[in-house]
Amino acid sequence: MKKIAIYGKGGIGKSTVVSNMSAALAGMGHTVMQIGCDPKSDSTRNLTGGQRIPTVLESMRDKEDIALEDIVFKSSTGVYCVESGGPIPGVGCAGRGIITAFEKLEELDAYEVYKPDIIFYDVLGDVVCGGFAMPIRGGYADDVCIVTSGEMMSLYAATNISHAVKSFGKRGYASLRGLILNAKNFEGEDELVQKAADEIGTQIILKVPRDPAVQAAEALGKTVVEAFPDCDQAKVYRELATRLIESGN
Fold first, then answer.
1. Cα separation, 145 vs 244, whole angstroms
2. Of 9, 38, 104, 222, which one is the catalytic site residue?
3. Which residues is 206 bridged to in the sheet?
4. b/e for 4-18, b at 16 or more Cβ within 10 A?
5. 79 CB neighbour count, 10 Å cutoff
6. 167: exposed, middle or buried (Cβ count in 10 Å: 0-12, 13-18, 19+)
7. CB-CB contact of 179 with 158 (8 Å)
8. Which residue from 20, 3, 56 is spatially nearest to 226, judged by alpha carbons?
9. CA distances from 192 to 92, 120, 187, 201 (A)
10. Does the active-site annotation cover 40?
């Protein structure tokens, strides 16, 4: 089982990248589980026809005893979708919510029941503390990838995330695999991201170009891979997914 945590600043397109990779790998015959680790609970939206699924925390608040069927939903592309969710606004800690969701999945033997080949953790990366660091420090993920553009705040977040990964890496936890450049297509962007990668001491795994197919697919509540499987952008997502599941690339 390959376990990959994808981090990135909010709004950088991280969930779009993750969902398309999940759909791509499922289409290749892999059993994939995608776990959204963001209180917005929108990681899997493009896998579920644009519909929001019940979160783990919501289900735990609504029912005394929950089953896997209450929190794990299979998409039309065959991806098992989970959203950790968050606390009631103004009450509780979102990071603690992620920890609670992970513990519930383990308690219900989710990984034994569904036997995923690949698990993607889609994690908000504006802060890397508490539960948001859980995939790194809890021994859940093998690799961490950071989605970034060449924008200053995105690169700032990527640098902070990389420091956290390296700190936990000293304890034998997840290691930093590299950056995924989700391009905004402004002049000099490639050079800025390469410079950041060099300073962090990592690689750019792949550049994902900006493409109107992404917005067109999302308007349908779908991934590009599902909506437009033969387009160039779908091929990019398949290439990225393939690279991530191949060790050492």
1. 9
2. 9
3. 180
4. bbbbbbeebbbbbbb
5. 29
6. middle
7. yes
8. 20
9. 38, 27, 10, 14
10. yes
The answer, yes or no, to whether residue 114 has pLDDT greater than 70, is yes
| Active-site choice (40, 74, 207, 235) | 40
CA distance 198 to 191: 10
Among residues 205, 124, 135, which one has the least CA distance to residue 160? 124
Active-site residue, from 42, 70, 117, 126: 126
Structure letter (DSSP) for residue 2? E
Cα Rg of the chain, angstroms: 17
Hey, what are 97's tokens? 């919510």
Read off the pTM.
Answer: 0.93
Instruction: Tell me which of 2, 14, 104, 222 is the catalytic residue.
Output: 14
pLDDT in tens, 69-105: 999 999 999 999 999 987 666 666 667 778 888 999 9
Can you tell me the distance from the alpha carbon of 223 to that of 187, in angstroms, rounded to the nearest whole number? 28
The token duo for 239 is 């290439």
Strands 143-148 and 118-124: unpaired
pLDDT band at 248 (very low <50, low <70, confident <90, very high): low
What pLDDT score was predicted for residue 126?
76
Question: In angstroms, rounded to a whole number, what is the distance separating the alpha carbons of residues 204 and 193?
Answer: 8
Half-sphere exposure of 73 (CA within 13 A, CB side): 22
First to last CA, the chain: 17
Nearest to 94 by CA among 9, 170, 151, 36: 36
